[in-house]
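Protein details
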Amino acid sequence: MKIDEQLLKSYSAEIKTYKKRELIFREGESPAFYYQIIEGAVKVNNFNEEGKEFIHNILEKGQSFGDAHLFIEKKYSVNAYALVPTTVIMLPRKNFINLVKENPHVSLEINACLSHRLYFKMKMIHDMVSQHPSARILGLFNYLRSYTDCEDQHSFNVKLTRQQIADLTGLRVETIIRTIKKMENENLVKIKDRKIYY
């Protein structure tokens, strides 16, 4: 979901730059802003009781994050960190709600975007119970790609390590490496400079 920057500024949005690894918001905090990335990358995650990280997504230029929390009286269920030096445009929650009320086309776009994300999240959860490693991996890749405009085959760069893919799918790293190699042979993914493209 991307809202026109001039429209955001007309509702008193501000621009802020975060350093690499700097926290943008923390799990348990009350949502205060709509965030949209101008440059850089943001990791959305949380940790379980043992301190194990669960990465929900890695977002880049033009993408928004934390927006679903702005419509409900719930605290953040995730953290957001700048992966690299990152510039975002931030709109206070009250102004964001006014923008949505006064611009019905934005409201429709947000509803479509949130519905799209929910659809792929449910699909990913369904794929995660599969006994086939490739189904779990593809479910994850489809979910991550749903946040982008990448529709062409092999145009989406999966910016996760093999270990992170293993953590997200409940598979062993060795299984991930072996399955991704098989998926490459089947032309489901491309590997270039150790990077995965789906």
